[in-house]
Specification:
The complex is a heterodimer of chains A (314) and B (224). Chain A is 14% helix and 32% strand. Chain A is an alpha+beta fold. Classes of the chains: A alpha+beta (314), B alpha+beta (224). Chain A binds chain B through residues 23-30, 32, 132-133, 141-144, 149, 185, 187-188, 233-238, 240-241, 258-261, 265, 268-271, 293, 296-297, 300, 304, and chain B through 6-12, 14, 21, 33, 37, 44-55, 57, 60-61, 64-65, 129-136, 138, 174-175, 177, 192, 194, 197, 200-201, 204-205.
Chain lengths: 314, 224
């Protein structure tokens, strides 16, 4: 019985169902997708007593305004998010990294993310979703995943299949930090760029453009001059690859990226910095800093340790 | 054979099969791809074969570049020539409303429309790879006289089913997407179907494709 559900009063700008995404489909043109900020995704699930690959709602900038109908349920929001909860006649300012109980007719209004892009809403239960290739992750460009591959829309219902009756109150003291230096490993076409171009890449600031989404982040700055060829033979891409097209402005591939590309790769963002990279809002200024493979691997170990440490504190 | 393996970032192997693009090199890439896919090596989470490269991405929590490189360096490729080539005939309609860039091609290639289509429809194409967007096949090789560059400014929306040309290749837009290829027609055939999880792609690397011109009437009645 689907007697528990959210009614969407306002869907928000780009609210989608996400989990860890889907593997081993690059060769047919399907990217990983999955939650953009992996750490905040994992924390949201832990705060509501779920396992680590449980569908959540990801939102960007403005989140959804939801009205809850059904038996009581625990929810948690992660990221840097302003939201309000209406319990009967009380209007409470919500806090991230803390579980809240919603009862029948309560409302949750996720007003906005603060100086960041993505936030996560997890529930102590299971949304009633269709999976594709064992993942709910919605890729709106390819129309793949739950909700028929579409983002959430106003006035629809989000059905909840099951509530895990885990009403333990959970809390974590955690503040997201901003990143100014994105660490990168030189790309396979690094030598396509002039000496001046290479210097610009590592010394100058770049501004995040508003033409950024789950597929890619476009940057604006001083033009990076190519001295070999502005096209390469199309080949595979991965998350974090920085391509420089003909106009000289870098584009970073994000979770829903095209799987093949024909622009030279100047660098690749290290795995440890990915979660913070995706949270950069349009207009933010960033610099790239070169690291080698060994350092990148060490940075990832530290990132992973910190994530596990945070999870274990909940 | 793989000429060189380097790292692409901290979580992928970049296997280079040489500079050239031809069926022989691409067949090597596909053989490696299929062998590695069958071996289910722990940690690998994606494989992307292309004309002359194979990118192997992995979960940095489970394995790292040096360890995986050793495994790939020592891999024995399945010897048999068991790659099955399927053949497809793809119907396309080249009426004005679908052939968005035929005038541009006439100009760039200095050829008449009829000659462009004649040369295009005579060809049997080989599928080198699929991707960019889900299920999009990269087909080669176009005759020398049909090779044109991408549009200077890519379209924000290329209609689903569009057939595009660029350099030595033709492709099919499996759904509406941004893109910069020269569009010469449109197919009513569904090339990608996400509801078929085991076989979402109609055309796969190694397959052979010919195009068949259909009238607008046939196009409109195709699904009836």
């Amino acid at each position: 019985m689907n007697k528990n559900y959210f009614e969407i009063i306002r869907a928000g700008i780009n609210s989608t169902f996400q989990d860890l995404g889907r593997n081993n489909l690059y060769h047919i043109g399907i990217p990983f997708s999955g939650a953009m900020d992996n750490r905040n995704y994992l924390l949201a699930n832990k705060l509501t007593g779920n396992d680590h690959n449980h569908p959540v709602i990801e939102f960007a900038y403005q989140g959804p305004h939801l009205k809850y109908h059904g038996n009581k349920i625990n929810i948690a929001i992660t990221g840097d998010v302003s939201f309000k909860i209406k319990n009967g006649d009380n209007l409470i300012d919500g806090e991230c990294y803390q579980s809240f109980i919603l009862e029948n007719d309560d409302e949750l209004d996720i007003i906005s993310t603060n100086k960041s892009v993505y936030g996560y809403l997890a529930i102590s239960g299971t949304f009633d979703l269709k999976f594709q290739w064992s993942s709910c992750s919605t890729n709106t460009k390819a129309k793949i995943g739950s909700n028929n591959g579409e983002k959430l829309s106003d006035n629809q219902k989000i059905k909840i299949k099951e509530i895990n009756n885990n009403f333990v109150s959970r809390k974590l003291n955690y503040v997201n930090t901003k990143i100014e230096h994105i660490r990168v490993i030189k790309g396979t076409n690094f030598n396509y760029f002039s000496e001046v171009g290479k210097k610009i890449f590592f010394k100058n600031e770049f501004k995040v453009s508003k033409l950024s989404d789950r597929m890619g982040m476009r940057l604006e700055g001083k033009k990076i001059e190519n001295i070999v060829d502005t096209n390469i033979r199309s080949e595979g891409l991965i998350k974090g690859v920085i391509q420089v097209p003909t106009d000289g402005n870098p584009i970073i591939m994000l979770s829903d990226h095209g799987t093949i590309g024909g622009y030279p790769k100047i660098g690749v963002v290290v795995s440890a910095d990915y979660d913070k990279l995706v949270q950069l809002t349009p207009g933010s200024r960033v610099k790239f800093q070169e690291v080698d493979l060994n350092s990148a691997e060490t940075l990832f170990k530290l990132y992973e340790l910190e994530t596990q440490n945070l999870i274990s504190q909940i | 054979m793989i000429k060189n393996i380097s790292n692409l970032g901290d979580a992928a192997l970049y296997c280079d099969f040489g500079k050239e693009i031809n069926k022989e090199i691409n067949t090597h890439v596909i053989k490696y791809f299929k062998t590695i896919q069958k071996k289910n090596i722990p940690g690998i989470n994606n494989l992307t074969p292309s004309y002359n490269k194979l990118i192997i991405s992995f979960d940095l929590k489970k394995i790292n570049f040096n360890k995986l490189k050793k495994i790939v360096d020592n891999i024995e490729i399945i010897k048999s020539d068991s790659i099955q080539n399927k053949k497809f005939e793809i119907p396309i309609c080249c009426e004005k409303e679908f052939s968005l860039d035929i005038k541009r091609l006439e100009e760039k290639l200095k050829m008449r429309e009829e000659k462009i289509y004649e040369s295009f429809f005579e060809k049997e194409f080989f599928c080198y790879m699929t991707g960019f967007i889900a299920g999009m096949p990269f087909l080669g090789d176009l005759d020398e006289n049909l090779r044109a560059k991408r549009l200077e400014t890519p379209r924000v929306k290329v209609p689903k089913g569009s057939i595009g040309l660029t350099e030595q290749f033709a492709n099919i837009y499996t759904f509406e997407s941004p893109g910069g290829w020269n569009i010469i027609g449109n197919t009513p055939l569904n090339i990608f179907d996400s509801s078929k999880e085991n076989k979402p792609n109609l055309i796969n690397p190694g397959d052979l494709v010919i195009f068949k011109r259909i009238t607008k009437e046939n196009y409109q009645n195709y699904h009836e």
